[in-house]
């Protein structure tokens, strides 16, 4: 797959305990992005954060939270991101979704590695 220099970054902020059809929401989003042929997705787990409710979620020992912040980043063409947004809208019941233009410098796979 080749990405053009001009692309978009879709960033989804959710909670670790959020679910979609009996599976973690972050997992469902990544699998749907893969199914639709998007270039790639990365899930990042945050040690601390808060959202619209201002409820603090933290990984500190004394306040162990089972709902740490999760950020999913997906980069692809504007057309592919736009096609993915209706699916995402149905899946994300609460959270924050942002979109920004980015410039792709390099997007390459090591062709000698076997694909999974």
Summarize the structure in words.
- With 116 residues, the chain is of the alpha+beta class.
- It has one domain: Alpha-Beta Plaits.
- 22% of the residues lie in helices and 34% in strands.
- The strands form three sheets. Strands 4-7-1-8 form a four-stranded antiparallel beta sheet. A two-stranded antiparallel sheet has the order 2-3. Strands 5-6 form a two-stranded antiparallel sheet.
- The model has no long low-confidence stretch (mean pLDDT 89).
Question: Approximately how much beta-strand content do the residues carry?
Answer: 25-35%
Q: Would you tell me the overall average pLDDT?
A: 89
Shape: globular
| CATH fold group | Alpha-Beta Plaits
What is the alpha-carbon Rg in Å? Answer: 16 Å
Strand order of the largest sheet: 4-7-1-8
Query: Percentage of helical residues?
Result: 10-25%
* Count of discrete domains: 1
What is the N-to-C order of secondary-structure elements (H for helix, E for strand)?
EEEHEEEEHE
Assembly state: single chain
CATH-scheme architecture: 2-Layer Sandwich
| Span between termini | 16 Å
Total count of helical runs of at least 4 residues: 2
What would you call the structural class? alpha+beta
Describe the sheet with the most strands.
Answer: 4 strands, antiparallel
Q: What's the count of strands?
A: 8
Uncertain spans, ≥5 residues at pLDDT below 50?
none
CATH class: Alpha Beta
């Amino acid at each position: 797959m080749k990405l053009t220099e001009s692309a978009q970054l879709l960033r989804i902020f959710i909670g670790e305990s959020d679910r979609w059809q009996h599976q973690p929401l972050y997992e469902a989003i990544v699998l749907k992005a893969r199914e639709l042929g998007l270039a790639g997705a990365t899930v990042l787990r945050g040690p601390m954060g808060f959202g619209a409710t201002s409820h603090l979620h933290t990984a500190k020992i004394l306040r162990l939270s089972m709902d740490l912040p999760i950020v999913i980043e997906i980069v692809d063409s504007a057309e592919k991101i736009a096609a993915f947004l209706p699916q995402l809208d149905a899946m994300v019941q609460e959270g924050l979704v942002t979109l920004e233009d980015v410039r792709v410098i390099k997007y390459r796979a090591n062709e000698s590695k076997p694909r999974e």
